[in-house]
């Protein structure tokens, strides 16, 4: 997979209520119109020419897969500015809003969706974006079966009714307006311009690739697509650069010196400095991204559910969140607040006495032979390292030794697919603004491990997961109940995972940047077109 989308460590804001507006028969979502750059406080941006390059600072590689059909990693930041989908999730309205589609309707049963496409849009290749081109792009993504292509699984048939009308017939009801707003696998692109390696600049977005130098500090630069359908104003940024800076302290120093414009994540100490620093503004918001501590349910000592339950109880949840100093909030179940399926009252608590009882029942603990467990976590992630430190200390009191290994995601994932560890720590967030992603990807049974890295196999859980898309589109109350039941089964009954916290993102950016909004559906993405340079 990559540096992988589950290791993004900064992020998103806002909350989501999955509304039924687009799922009711004949009801229309959306309206045409050109998006305009916003200025701070709603005032017009200064109409001066902006020749400055906006410099974004990621902490790891910018692009691992250029193909818009299969991309499923950190390149979401760049590709979200090169490509567009039919819709885009808006964190303020909490629903899908128009992008390449200007409006859409769905049948009463949620199985037929009709999208009206924006007119006068061209790809970077010069070809016209119309219904046939959009159909070909989505069908190619489905056929490639890579990345997040599973989001289109409900689709039975796509028809280009005319140049401006795209119609979907679904196998079962699904929230297609939200699916079409995914940050992965939902891009519309010129299929004929995709080369053998999948690389193409044939999107419809406001930017195209200027240069790409893999492994260089400034890995990627973008330039304005002058024929962008939204048009351009003088104060918008027409040039963007990605300057890879692994060390947070270095990134902070570059921002203070005015050499970069956006740091995607600061630690709590630096964030406090940024709050009062000259020439810097900060942004802080909760995300849809949580930390998962996955237990190996298939092999080794953690195959015993008592051991897994003891491990859940050994985590110092309150201490961890307190130590993170505002950069995280305690989780309640698998689904973060703001998404359909969030269940209050599932906040975990540490209980070392109960953990010791469970370990004793499993043949471990202070009066038994030492238990040694292996754990892998993200190399360079200080928050995960803190979790490991606290957990190791707690388990030591129970005669359990944790052999923890920091690893790159690629190495960690390769080992995980071989069931090579007892505990695996990773982040998760939804591919589109719907909780289904956690359950399908991480906890549904698979013949060979991919992202189901607890190796859970349970037919009843699988059947309940498979019902979720249709329920979300047709009966949200029932979907909410099923999400709650599934979380209780996975966390409490199966003890397949512990969920310590949901991340809060702490950004720092240049004080003269206007229009930045963090969006929970697109982690770490800055929509550069929406930004302006203050006078």
Notes on the protein architecture:
The chain has 535 residues and is α+β, with helices and mostly antiparallel strands. 25% of the residues lie in helices and 22% in strands. Strands 1, 8, 9, 10, 11, 12, 13, 14, 15, 16, 17 and 18 form a twelve-stranded mixed sheet that branches. A hairpin with a 2-residue loop joins strand 6 and strand 7. The protein is globular, with a radius of gyration of 23 Å. The two termini are 43 Å apart. The N terminus is likely disordered.
Number of helices: 13
Based on secondary structure, the structural category is: alpha+beta
Q: What share of residues are in beta strands?
A: 15-25%
The helix content, as a percent range, equals: 25-40%
Biggest sheet descriptor: 12 strands, mixed
Question: How many beta-strand segments?
Answer: 20
Average of pLDDT: 89
* Shape verdict: globular
The whole-angstrom Rg is 23 Å
How far apart are the termini? 43 Å
* Low-confidence regions: 1-46
Break the fold down into its secondary structure elements and pairings.
Elements: E1 53-57, H1 76-82, E2 87-90, E3 95-98, E4 101-106, E5 112-117, H2 131-144, E6 155-162, E7 165-170, H3 176-179, E8 207-212, E9 218-224, E10 239-243, H4 248-256, E11 262-263, H5 268-275, E12 280-295, H6 305-314, H7 317-323, E13 328-330, H8 352-361, E14 371-378, H9 382-396, E15 400-407, H10 409-417, E16 423-428, H11 436-443, H12 459-474, H13 476-493, E17 497-498, E18 501-510, E19 513-514, E20 532-533
Parallel strand pairs: 1-10, 1-11, 14-15, 14-16
Antiparallel strand pairs: 2-3, 4-5, 5-7, 6-7, 8-9, 9-10, 11-18, 12-16, 12-17, 12-18, 13-18, 19-20
Helix pairs in contact: 6-8, 11-12, 12-13
